[in-house]
Specification:
The chain has about 90 residues and is mostly beta strands. The protein has strands at about 20-25, 30, 35, 40-45, 65-70, 75. Helix content is about 0%, strand content about 20%. Residues about 5-10 have low confidence and may be disordered.
Amino acid sequence: MKVYSRLEPVQTTPAAIDGHIWDLSIPTETHGGSLNAPGRQVLIVPGRKWAQTPATCPVSDTAPGEWIGTGPTEVLVCTGCGLDVT
């Protein structure tokens, strides 16, 4: 069993879908003003640009997201900023 230090983030974001990548440069500590689970990232979808960043996103954590992918790489992302909310 792996033991994490306080400085090492726990990875909760699944593998990216073919043709998509996780943008690790966008800060994801908060989503719409609420604290976010460590390790969550923004999915970059070819041909699509998210209107917001997680910190400024007005979409609530309880609002419906969008399922992208299939099988083990399927993730639920916020429709406002692309944050993994699976």
